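Example for tutorial group B:
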């Protein structure tokens, strides 16, 4: 398969949780896959866990921007928080990776960062800006030859799945006015069945040993009833933002 995919994530473990099935499925089909991680520095324990997760998913070595997690200064000692770095700089850093990888498709979180984490929301914004900037020879001339991805895919959930799963996960229906995850079903461009890769995804998630111990996402997923976990692990959904003039099929460009 002659296709390149580049995922941009805020933290080590998000590549497995949000896009692990897609990465494994496309790597198995022969696509080039890579992951940029915005926070945590090389040499930290979590960077080592990321390396193992990427190996399981077949996504190459870590590409760390090396900024600090918004809530964890020890994630990158001496480096600024990702959310505080001027866009001019963080967009330029990501443009460099896009021009190196030359992906057809860039993937990141939806505009709500999946569930509102400030690092995720920021990664979404920086990714959209960088995917656009990477195609201009006038911008960041020192960061490699211009490259225009065809589309950016935003990992999200259809609202119907969120509502149906809410009671199963939290033990009660959503309160009126509750902030919900995901987007209206009609905004989903791609539903990827990754059930056959769910075990690899689960293994990649468990490569992040320190997060398995204390991370909220992993604790929640582990505590889920089997059926709900299988549903979450076996399906990935995306909104699609086109960066080309030509209309294309609403698949992952395959
Ligand atoms: Zn995260």
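The residue assignment follows.
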């Amino acid at each position: 398969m002659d296709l390149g995919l580049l995922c941009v994530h805020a933290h080590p473990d998000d590549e497995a949780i949000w896009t692990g099935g897609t990465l494994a499925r496309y790597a198995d089909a022969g696509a080039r896959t890579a992951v940029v991680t915005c926070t945590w520095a090389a040499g930290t324990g979590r960077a080592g866990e990321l390396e193992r997760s990427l190996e399981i998913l077949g996504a190459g070595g870590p590409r760390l921007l090396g900024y600090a997690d918004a809530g964890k200064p020890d994630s990158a000692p001496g480096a600024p928080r990702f959310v505080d770095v001027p866009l001019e700089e963080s967009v330029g850093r990501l443009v460099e990776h896009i021009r190196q990888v030359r992906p057809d498709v860039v993937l990141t979180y939806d505009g709500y960062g999946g569930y509102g984490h400030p690092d995720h929301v920021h990664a979404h914004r920086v990714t959209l800006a960088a995917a656009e900037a990477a195609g201009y020879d006038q911008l960041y001339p020192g960061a490699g030859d211009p490259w225009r991805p065809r589309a950016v895919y935003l990992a999200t959930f259809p609202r119907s799945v969120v509502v149906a799963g809410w009671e199963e996960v939290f033990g009660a229906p959503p309160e009126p006015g509750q902030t919900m995850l995901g987007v209206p079903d009609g905004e989903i461009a791609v539903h990827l069945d990754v059930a056959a890769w769910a075990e690899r995804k689960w293994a990649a998630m468990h490569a992040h040993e320190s997060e398995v111990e204390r991370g909220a996402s992993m604790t929640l997923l582990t505590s889920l009833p089997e059926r709900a976990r299988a549903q979450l692990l076996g399906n990935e959904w995306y909104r699609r933002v086109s960066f080309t003039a030509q209309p294309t099929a609403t698949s992952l460009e395959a």
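The mean pLDDT is 93. Compare this with the pattern of hydrophobic and polar residues in the output above.
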